Amino acid sequence: MAHREDSVETIQQEMTAFARRARATAARMHPELSLVSYTLLAHLDDQQGCRATDLAAHYFLDKSTVSRQIAALEKLGFVERRVDPEDHRVQVLHPTEKGDRVLANVTASRRRAFHERLADWDEEDLDRFATYLRRYNAAQERLG
Amino acid sequence: MAHREDSVETIQQEMTAFARRARATAARMHPELSLVSYTLLAHLDDQQGCRATDLAAHYFLDKSTVSRQIAALEKLGFVERRVDPEDHRVQVLHPTEKGDRVLANVTASRRRAFHERLADWDEEDLDRFATYLRRYNAAQERLG
DNA sequence: TCTATTGCGTTGTACTATACAACTACCTCT
DNA sequence: AGAGGTAGTTGTATAGTACAACGCAATAGA
Lengths: 144, 144
Prior knowledge:
2 copies of one chain form a homodimer. The first copy, chain A, is mainly α. Chain A has 6 helices and 3 strands; from the N terminus they run ααβααββαα.
């Protein structure tokens, strides 16, 4: 009973602490691509291109936010727009070659940072932690 | 080997997804107190009052940021300043009664949300997850 | 004791991320 | 053809943040 309460309390505190720090840490370590830009660019890469609207829906962002983020990424030469010939309202977004390079660098660097943080964890703990996080995020998505 | 990689990749993805969403979720659920205000106010409550400089150091925030956050909390009537009679440069910050009430409400509501998300977890998983999060955050702090 | 340095906090300025609302351009259905 | 919906942009506003310049108080050194 008390134990359950305590664990939830700790989870809350640690998740909160992490959330508070995350953006600033990411910005410090990867100045060339903010956490949000990184996520969007990675999604484009992953999906082999998609629409701004899809990004907005997937990340619960306003379309205006996505529009500006994409405009910034385009200005940096990391993303290009291809107007859909079937529907001229639609722009399919793709990473450019330069965007791919930067994305690969940041991904590698993020991966290094995570590996470093988790260096002394054994495989079983890593696996469990990954599973817990996935489960937690799924629950949060489900419950809003 | 591959397994280790996969787990780290998942942890990275899920932590990133969580970080991206956290502030907006918090703001939606607790409009009266942002994630940062909440954290600062909770710290004051916890420490039985402290200085702006201490908050800045503890949360790796610029002193100007803290100054403005505190000003906002004061304007809302959630925090009061008591000039240290020993050192007139120093203001010791305390939650007001109203601040305590709001803090208690938000804390309770956050706690409910976490309990809801974690409702179907058994005690052992909760305990492990809490431990992992603590370990992860400690490593991140240690490694910058 | 006078001065120089340090520490605490505020204010000016700038930037990023974000939302909401109004708008344009385009598409689809009747 | 007109109505209504969809994709994306732009205007406006807000929050959170940092950095730099400042003012005031305290303290250490000559």
